[in-house]
Write a structure and sequence with these properties.
2 domains, alpha/beta, 4-stranded antiparallel beta sheet, 12 strands, Rossmann fold, Arc Repressor Mutant, subunit A
């Protein structure tokens, strides 16, 4: 079996549709209809991935995601019926791996699930330590230290910083960063990169490790002494 997917939504037709298509792909599907149930099922079932609606009774999906992230790095795809960017940005900020707007094509959901699981599996299979200047990234433990002090990153901040560190000094455009961090199947816009870069710059403030903007192209990670900057 490819794995277990927990689908959380208070709309029965959404749950049934997701269950049908995911089951046809060989996944075991567990379900929950509210936030409290979702937290209980996440602990008891220990799914490989969670599809999580934002607007739910008892506890909303964003709070559920935040609670799950306190103890687990299980991949999360959030669902939102709203057209505004704010839900997507907040969801990614608290550690969601991808998002989809409702109504959605169930085939696209299956594709997103497969892509996120592939990325998660790849991270587990290739643990390594990356060091750039005073920055140290441990992919196995997902710990980051800067000047010997641990810094706490959201899930996508960690992956984005890792991508920069693996390509130190190389300019990466936004489209490439989306592919590296969110995957080729991600359909979001490039503003997501700018938001996450801004968050990372706050975490790297007062250190020699910087994310430089290369106007009209993208970003690159540099160490100030390497770049010849004061």
């Amino acid at each position: 079996m490819p794995g277990t997917i927990l689908v959380v939504d208070d709309e029965k037709n959404i749950v049934q549709l997701a269950r049908l298509y995911l089951t046809n792909e060989g996944y075991r599907v567990e379900t929950a209809s509210d936030g409290k149930q979702a937290l209980d099922r996440a602990k008891s079932v220990r799914p490989d991935l969670i599809v999580l609606d934002i607007m739910m009774p008892e506890i909303d999906g964003l709070t559920v995601c935040k609670e799950i992230r306190k103890t687990s790095n299980v991949p999360v795809i959030i669902l939102t019926a709203r057209g505004e960017d704010i839900d997507r940005i907040i969801g990614l900020e608290i550690g969601a791996d991808d998002y989809m707007a409702k109504p959605f094509n169930p085939r696209e959901l299956v594709a997103r699930v497969k892509a996120v699981l592939r990325r998660a599996q790849g991270e587990r299979e290739a643990p390594e330590v990356i060091e750039v200047g005073s920055l140290r990234i441990d992919a196995a433990s997902r710990e980051v230290t800067l000047d010997g002090q641990e810094i706490h990153l959201r899930a996508k901040e960690f992956e984005l910083l890792s991508a920069f560190a693996q390509h130190k000094g190389i300019v990466l455009d936004r489209e490439r960063l989306l592919r590296l961090v969110w995957g080729a199947d991600y359909y979001g816009d490039t503003r997501t990169i700018d938001v996450h870069v801004a968050w990372l710059r706050e975490k790297l403030a007062n250190s020699s490790v910087k994310i430089q903007t290369v106007w009209g192209v993208g970003y690159k990670l540099v160490v100030e002494s390497d770049a010849g900057e004061p």
